[in-house]
């Protein structure tokens, strides 16, 4: 079980606004629901900081892995990397998204572009109101972040957060658990890797894949999906630019390689691949469930495909 106990300080209400002003950076991003009904991270230009976290349509990963970015360029015998981002805060991050950022921190541990952006981020978590689609689990994995603020307490999640609180006069810490929403983890099926592989030829993969539109929406909104494509653009004067863009494991081209071979032909293969990634991860993180239960994929899927329902079928042994 992951222990989410951190030093926690009493926070007098009069100090909250001062504290949030102290954590302000060049860009302060807060979740806001706009006229189209979507919740986004937007720059705070005026008005108060939020006191509650909101699940944004696109997760905070967008600030750490932009949909399109220049990685480096080479021109006139000189290499240059992308411009260094300005320091920014995100205030009002839900606990599941803090877990997702911990996961991305592990995946991109050696990735310079990610690490440069990550070093500029100050993340302030807050409690959220769990929605119908939510299935977060405090036991799943550790969380990233710097502070967590809930009513009259503030938790230091990182050395930077702790230093800042001490600077603000918060001195007497008491180790306390974070206030996770209750009962969420009970909604999740306990699928093992063995059961997953045993169900490789089950009929329901074909049934679900037939409904799937391969739109990729579920992967785009997922806080732990990170597939990307690299494209080098060379010109006749000898300059080269390497760009990186989000890719998507539901797209037909995703498993294709030079020579025309396709590692994952057909939607059933791609659905199984995503399922495997979410529940068991790959590489050094193999065995780590990376689905933080935020519910975004369930909300956006136009045909109501639900990975937990598929996992439940696997657990029940429903091979047909
Ligand atoms: S798979 Fe779905 S519920 Fe799980 S983290 Fe990704 S978007 Fe959230
Ligand atoms: S959102 Fe639904 S329909 Fe679109 S790719 Fe994902 S599972 Fe398929």
What's the arrangement of secondary structure elements?
Layout (H helix, E strand, L loop, with lengths): L4 E6 L2 H11 L3 E7 L5 E5 L17 H4 L3 E8 L2 E4 L6 E6 L1 H13 L4 H9 E5 L21 E4 L2 E4 L2 H9 L6 E4 L15 H6 L4 H9 L5 H5 L6 E7 L5 E7 L20 H14 L15 H5 L6 H10 L4
Parallel strand pairs: 2-6, 6-7, 7-8
Antiparallel strand pairs: 1-9, 1-10, 2-3, 4-5, 4-12, 8-9, 11-12
Helix pairs in contact: 7-9
The structure holds iron/sulfur cluster (SF4) (2 copies).
Briefly summarize what is shown.
This protein has 320 residues and is α+β, with helices and mostly antiparallel strands. The protein has helices spanning 13-23, 61-64, 95-107, 112-120, 159-167, 193-198, 203-211, 217-221, 267-280, 296-300, 307-316; strands spanning 5-10, 27-33, 39-43, 68-75, 78-81, 88-93, 121-125, 147-150, 153-156, 174-177, 228-234, 240-246.
SS element count, helices: 11
- The residue-averaged pLDDT reads 92
Strand content: 15-25%
Q: What is the CA-based Rg, rounded?
A: 21 Å
Helical coverage, percent range: 25-40%
**Distinct ligands:** iron/sulfur cluster
* SSE succession: EHEEHEEEHHEEEHEHHHEEHHH
Contiguous runs where pLDDT drops below 50 for at least 5 residues: none
- End-to-end separation in angstroms reads 34 Å
Largest sheet composition: 8 strands, mixed
Widest sheet: strand order?
3-2-6-7-8-9-1-10
Q: Outline, from the CA principal axes? A: globular
Number of strands: 12
Helix/strand-derived category reads alpha+beta
Multimeric organization? single chain
């Amino acid at each position: 079980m992951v222990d989410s106990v951190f030093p926690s300080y009493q926070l007098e209400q009069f100090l909250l606004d001062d504290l949030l002003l102290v954590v302000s950076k060049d860009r302060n991003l807060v979740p806001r629901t706009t006229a189209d009904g979507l919740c986004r991270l937007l720059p705070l230009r005026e008005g108060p900081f939020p006191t509650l976290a909101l699940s944004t349509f696109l997760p905070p990963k967008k600030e750490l892995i932009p949909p399109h970015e220049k990685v480096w360029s080479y021109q006139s015998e000189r290499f240059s990397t992308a411009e260094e981002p300005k320091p920014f805060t995100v205030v009002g991050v839900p606990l599941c998204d803090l877990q997702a950022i911990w996961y991305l921190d592990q995946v991109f541990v050696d990735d310079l572009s990610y690490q440069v952006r990550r070093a500029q981020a100050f993340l302030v978590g807050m409690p959220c109101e769990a929605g119908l689609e939510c299935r977060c689990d405090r036991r799943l994995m550790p969380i990233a972040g710097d502070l967590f603020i809930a009513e009259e307490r503030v938790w230091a999640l990182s050395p930077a957060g702790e230093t800042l609180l001490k600077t603000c006069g918060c001195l007497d810490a008491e180790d306390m658990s974070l206030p996770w929403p209750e009962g969420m983890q009970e909604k999740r099926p306990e699928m093992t890797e063995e059961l997953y592989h045993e169900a490789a030829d089950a009929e329901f993969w074909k049934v679900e894949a037939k409904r799937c539109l391969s739109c990729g929406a579920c992967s785009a909104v997922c806080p732990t999906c990170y597939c990307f494509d690299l494209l080098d653009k060379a010109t006749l004067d000898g300059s080269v630019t390497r760009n990186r863009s989000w890719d998507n494991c539901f797209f037909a081209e995703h498993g294709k390689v030079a020579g025309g071979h396709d590692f994952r032909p057909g939607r059933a293969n791609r659905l199984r691949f995503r399922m495997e990634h979410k529940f068991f991860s790959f590489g050094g993180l193999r065995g780590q469930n990376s689905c933080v239960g935020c519910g975004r994929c369930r909300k956006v899927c136009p045909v109501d495909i639900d990975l937990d329902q598929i996992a439940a079928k696997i657990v029940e042994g429903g091979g047909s």
